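Case 396 in the screening queue. Each case pairs one protein sequence with one candidate compound; here the compound is guanosine-5'-triphosphate. For every case the pipeline is the same: read the inputs, emit a complex structure as tokens, and attach any notable structural observations.

Predict complex for case 396.
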Amino acid sequence: MILKTFRAPSMRDALVLVKREFGPHAVVVGTRSVKAGGFLGIGRRTLVEVTAGPQQERPQPRRADASPARPAMDARVRQTYGQLVAEAREEAVRVSAQDLRNEMTGLKDMVQRLIQETRSTREPDVPGELFDLYVGLLGNEVAEDMAKELVKTIREELPESQWRNEHRVRETLVRYIASRIDVAGPTVLEGPSPRIIALIGPTGVGKTTTLAKLAAQFKLREGHSVGLITIDTYRIGAVDQLRTYAEIIDVPLKVVLTPKELQRAVAEYKDMDFILLDTAGRSQRDVLKMNELRQFLDAVRPDETHLVLSSTCGQKNVESVLERFNQFKIDRVLLTKMDEAVSFGIVLTVLQKTRQKLSYVTVGQDVPNDIEAGQPRKLAELIVPPLTRNAERAVP
Ligand SMILES: Nc1nc2c(ncn2[C@@H]2O[C@H](COP(=O)(O)OP(=O)(O)OP(=O)(O)O)[C@@H](O)[C@H]2O)c(=O)[nH]1
Ligand SMILES: [Mg+2]
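Case 396 output:
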């Protein structure tokens, strides 16, 4: 609003001036008396000063505190108040964000505690800090009992403050597991020769391929004489498969149909260092064929019978296989297809259940290279899952 000041000797005269300027609805916003004129204090007159302005285009609703004499004040108050409100809001947001953060932290702690309590109730042997490790071991097909034993090992060997220290937990477990993996070392020529080595196991686990790898190792790398025998005349192409390997490695192959023929073939190989016996894959459910296999093995009593199992077969499957193959005199366990395995707990299960030593692991289809003697530390590293989740990445 445009304001103007009018001076006159009297209020009436001043108002006349105001109305002349702003019309009959002029708004007076202030009045006061002023002294004006004269010289050195002589002849000064008292005048009335009226401050007024034109009528507002849109009349404002009257508020109890909105006196027409204080619009400028109102604006200042509004400005100050606005600032205060903004500051108050900012503070409120800041405080409530902090409150929210505090509450979230509290809730997180509570949930964590609840999870740990629930876990501990369900698995009293597994403390909350080691639960992820426990789950990781199960996920790696480590049997439940063994996983609990491993957790117990950590509890016994490491102080509680170290349970989230990934490096220490891993190292402790790897060391412990490695100590539990009993290996036979590579097959060597010992005792009277020929040394008879038989590979038995379920269908398709890699017996024939592994036999060829061993034959190549003994003959080509170590310079031993080797004779091959197969009793697998069931599967079409089985004999051809082994014959091809025999020709490449340059070792003789005999195909036998009965236990008697097997005895004869062994006798004919009497000057060999090694006799390697390939057998047909036997479904553990096929009782008749399992009996037949036993008759063959009984006929020659191999020096080493290796139970060949694929590391890709699951925990459940391996248990039923072991149950059926338990009827044979097994001296070694041989694990194939490590290159295809997605979990490695099976290694522990097999060794624990058979109570036998691990001879070899195979790591691919390539004959003769993809085979190596079992190495406890290397296998243990595969069995312990990466413990990155929730674990401290501590400096060793
Ligand atoms: N990835 C991989 N494949 C393998 C390995 N060992 C064998 N195999 C493959 O597994 C398949 C079956 O191998 P075989 O040697 O015929 O298995 P088997 O146990 O003799 O089979 P049956 O005589 O039918 O019982 C073939 O394709 C092999 O190449 C291994 O270590 N890794
Ligand atoms: Mg075969």
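Case 396 observations:
- The chain has three domains: 4-56, 75-122, 195-373.
- DSSP finds twelve helices and eleven strands in the chain.
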